[in-house]
Known about the structure:
This protein is α/β, with parallel strands linked by helices. It contains ten helices and ten strands.
Amino acid sequence: MIQNDPNPRYLAAANRYANMSYNRCGNSGLKLPSLSLGLWQNFGAVDSPKNAQNMLHRAFDLGINHFDLANNYGPPFGSAESTFGQVMAKSFKPYRDEMLVSSKAGYDMWAGPYGIGGSRKYLIASCDQSLKRTGLDYFDVFYSHCYDPETPLEETMQALDYIVRSGRALYAGISSYSPVHTKQAIRILQDLGTPLLIHQPSYNMFDRWIEDGLSDVLLEEGVGSIVFSPLAQGFLTNKYLKGVPQGSRASRSEQIYLTEDNISQEKVAKVMQLNELAIQRGQSLAQMAVAWVLNNQAVTSAIIGASKVSQIEDCVAALDNLEFTQQELINIDNILGK
């Protein structure tokens, strides 16, 4: 008789919905958790599959039931979707209807002219490949990952409309579109009969571009938003207060969005001041950074990344203190030079 099952069946925590808040996504009937888990980094074939599984399990146990993917997440490309698919098959399958799983296409994925951009051919082929890697029958949201100036926007939106109508996804989304192109995308999808559910832009204390028009468009049009990089790729944590630690994201050669060159003394000085304010609030810097992005009325959910379980737990604890005084918000703007 087997005493210790090497692959015990995962049982989700019974109280997984007790403490997470869920927000309505624009004018839709869908609610998103305040925090979602992104698999951009640390879920690729170069990473520990056991650690990836532990992070996914813990996130779901804490009420994070939305997992954000893209075709080229890894490294190598596609491997984050494969990792998620393995966990889905092994332990998440009974909970599929409790989950939101999203993927995207738009950036470089495979060789040749049909492996990048916003064409109908690329988006539909990519969606089909992503479904195979994850082992899913459908995605809850499928995104155009970026605006493609070389493809008519009508064609890209028609592809999203087809992906939804064909049952490959339930909702359509766009990512990193400008306010002008977002409005155009909304109109095209409205005419097609597949409303735009959500926009996924970057947003954090150092990257506030959505405040220059996009937030207003989303609120006016009843479109939700899920922001990525709320911690500025880990820079808005206490990790970099004393330089670049070995093994951190900025120290890894394959990272392209946060490097040692991006970490100037001026920015470190601002992070140190923000850290002091977080301490006064009784939070870690990461917790305050998460709370700050959720303070924007246009933000439905924030996508957190993680390299270990404790980072997910720390971010979820931010939900215990989301309120800011007007003076705290002024102090943050003054530190940032806004």
